[in-house]
Design brief:
This is Dihydrodipicolinate synthase family protein. By secondary structure, the chain is of the alpha/beta class. It has helices at about 30-40, 60-75, 90-100, 120-130, 140-145, 150-160, 175-180, 195-200, 215-225, 230-250, 255-265, 285-300; strands spanning about 10-15, 45, 80, 105-110, 135-140, 165-170, 185-190, 205-210.
Length: about 300
Amino acid sequence: MTAGPDTPWRGVHVATPLLLRSDLSVDYDAYAEHVRFLAAGGCDGVCPNGSLGEYQTLTDEERARMVRTAVEASPEGHTVMPGVSAYGALEARRWTEQAAEAGADSVLLLPPNTYRADREGVVAHYREVAAVGLPVVAYNNPHDTRVDLTPDLLAELHGEGLIVAVKEFSGDVRRAYEVAELAPGLDLIIGADDVLLELGLAGAVGWIAGYPGVLPESCVELYRLATSGEPADIAKALPLYRDLHPLLRWDSKTEFVQSIKLSMDVVGLRGGPCRPPRTPLPPEITERVVRDTEAAVAKGYK
């Protein structure tokens, strides 16, 4: 299901990388070009300032300009969902207000990400950001935040009207069904590239993804097939998914930012370097990422 004016968080949203010059300054022109490329490739929108966008390394000025650049570069109908995660709820609210002023359509929000908040603290965190008025997509990544947005907690957040969807990155595809039971109106967004088919079959209506930034046309086709609900489409999706899975699984590894940027370089896009603390990939991982990327391209994926 694609995004619409009332559901701008649906469809394929690319978690876009931070494109840097050799001196590690942000290349906003290159980023704008990449946003236009993704829109032309059939993607429904972009998510600047997420984990793939190295948001923790950005200055306030850079972070705000990334959102404005994404909005300005997006053609009509192409939506922008900035990451607004921050150390505290007040800071996350300020980034949400900035996103609204810039013209963003929704926001993506982790729970507190340097403090293992209890249930009351998590609800208060989302309540603060939801007060701005933009649709909030919760981001469940217990591996990094150590806070797990369990199905019952998601149901509470949705029941209070604080979130419209969840980007599910726990890796536990069984949760999709419990979320649907406890919060039937909450949209499920695929949060990791290597569980696309499983969560698509479970009723997901969106995909916030890394590898569509490398192979947008093929990834969008795979998403459409995996989420249509038609048996014939699922049969078509399975061989594509098997072909691309060695590449897609890099999105769930610790070195996912470097890996996706390297894949961009391999296919002729501009990935480039990362800011510290990320360092270049070791030779053995570089070789594997290059091999997996070239294998996908050799099979005609683009």
